[in-house]
Design goal:
5 strands, 2 domains, Arc Repressor Mutant, subunit A, single chain, Rossmann fold, 226 residues, alpha/beta
């Protein structure tokens, strides 16, 4: 966990803000209070790091509009909601509006820190996953046509000898292509290769259903095409 992550405090009265500050000042989190919700939306990076702490008054649900606005503005930061007295209906509503967690006053230090840690960890994992996902099309585009065909077979769970037969190449050549694919895709196992490939955009991975030798009638015997 990176304790330099931001904790945005939004729509929280001075008393609760003081309690939050007292607990969090002993950590290395960077606290950023926002007294004005509008300024928060102007200043915050929607897909940035950290999380948000806000207050919702139940059962009147005063403050829930912030959650709705955050969702509408596509703010991806996890939002931890604090309330004086949670109700079942209120808890369900804030969760439906995208809250990551709901904590009751008085604040329990252990529960608060655990909730923030989980929120920030999930956010960091999501950002890392999205960063990796953005590189996948580029990695796939570096594959040759033949490597793309072999990859399609691997994703479908086919054995090397089956892929070799369908493509009209030797099993050893398939193994060579597979090694090159894993190097280019920056993975160490076929399982990882399949996992990230399945997350690629449609039609990026080639299909072994139309092998290179299929256009030549009678070309059934495997041949070594490198």
């Amino acid at each position: 966990m990176n304790y330099s992550d931001l904790i945005h405090i939004v729509n929280v009265d001075p008393f609760i803000r003081h309690s939050l500050t007292r607990i969090l000042e002993r950590t290395d989190y960077t606290l950023r209070p926002h007294e004005d919700v509008g300024r928060f939306f102007e200043d915050v990076e929607p897909n940035g790091r950290g999380c948000v702490v806000t207050y919702v008054d139940m059962p009147e649900m005063i403050g829930v509009e912030f959650l709705k606005d955050a969702k509408a503005r596509r703010v991806e930061l996890p939002i931890v909601v604090i309330t004086a007295q949670a109700t079942v209906r209120g808890a369900i509503q804030v969760m439906k509006e995208g809250a990551f967690d709901l904590l009751e006053l008085p604040l329990n230090e252990e529960k608060l820190l655990a909730s923030l840690e989980q929120a920030i960890t999930r956010r960091a994992d999501f950002r890392a996953h999205r960063t990796r996902a953005r590189t996948i099309p580029g990695r796939l585009s570096s594959l040759t046509n033949r490597e793309n065909d072999v990859l399609a077979g691997l994703v479908e769970g086919k054995l090397n000898k089956v892929i070799a037969h369908e493509l009209g190449i030797s099993a050893r050549t398939v193994e060579t292509h597979r090694s090159h694919i894993m190097t280019k895709m920056r993975v160490k196992s076929v399982a990882d290769l399949v996992r990230i490939s399945l997350g690629a955009p449609p039609n990026v991975i080639g299909s072994v259903n139309a092998p290179a030798n299929a256009s030549r009638p009678g070309a059934h015997a495997p041949r070594d095409q490198r």
